[in-house]
Write a structure and sequence with these properties.
Rossmann fold; binds hypoxanthine
């Protein structure tokens, strides 16, 4: 069934050209950078809308890396096609997030165990009550192990996947009261797609903005913490 839908509307790959594990990131140029600098023998399988996708190997493992754009509607499209048309089994999102808790520092990694949202994405399923989108426990456990082994600073917790980046209500900080420590714009949609398809997903974020203290990562902080995040994602892929 899935083979007939490849190439899909938004991904130009033929069936089989995408690995069973895909790293996804918002910025397609970052996907290209990862393919060129972290993977061996990377081949580009899609350039539709400039949303690059590549497949290569890492320590002999076949891995793909795909851009997903910004926000739940965009990651929703790419990850739906990966899971349902290309039979991808695992998607690991590597992204940035804003800290809404004072105990997260710039450059820390945050593994999103669960994802709250104000998005309507899940309404298509008509849940009889609220659904709690969560990460795959095995991927999360592996990420924690690799981060510990390497001494990388990280925390695990709930994330808020907002529909709005420029939040004029100024209410997103209120999630902190419920232990939600960071805000980004995609994980809830990713986790719902994974659950609906019976597949696995995890979001690994690096804190790029400390919203409580109004601190913002420098280019050097972004670069070094990005390398930590890549190491974790590729080791667990
Ligand atoms: N808000 C939403 N998404 C983000 C942020 C933010 O402050 N920082 C990085 N991704």
């Amino acid at each position: 069934m899935s083979k007939e839908q490849c190439p899909s509307p938004h991904i130009a790959a033929r069936y089989g050209e995408i690995a069973k594990t895909v790293l996804v990131c918002g910025d397609p140029l970052r996907a290209k950078f990862i393919a060129e600098n972290f993977l061996e023998n990377a081949v580009c399988y899609s350039e539709i809308r400039g949303m690059y996708g590549f497949t290569g190997t890492y320590k002999g493992k076949r891995v793909s890396v795909q851009g997903h754009g910004m926000g739940i509607p965009s990651i929703g499209i790419y990850t739906y096609e990966l899971f349902n048309f290309y039979d991808v089994e695992r998607i690991i999102r590597i992204g940035t997030a804003g800290a809404i808790s004072s105990d997260l520092n710039l450059g820390d990694m945050y593994f999103a165990m669960g994802a709250c949202t104000d998005s309507n994405y899940g309404h298509q399923y008509g849940f009889p009550a609220q659904f709690a989108p969560v990460a795959d426990y095995g991927l999360l456990e592996d990420a924690v192990r690799v981060a510990r082994e390497n001494g990388f600073p990280f925390q695990v917790g709930n994330i808020y996947s907002a529909d709005v980046f420029y939040d004029e209500s100024d209410r997103q900080m209120e999630w902190g009261r419920f232990g939600v420590k960071a805000v980004e714009m995609e994980s809830s949609g990713l986790y719902i797609n994974a659950a609906a398809a019976g597949k696995k997903a995890l979001t690994i974020c690096t804190i790029s903005d400390q919203l409580v203290r109004r601190e913002y990562a420098t280019a050097e902080q972004r670069r070094s913490s990005f390398t930590n995040m890549m190491k974790v994602a590729l080791e667990i892929a």
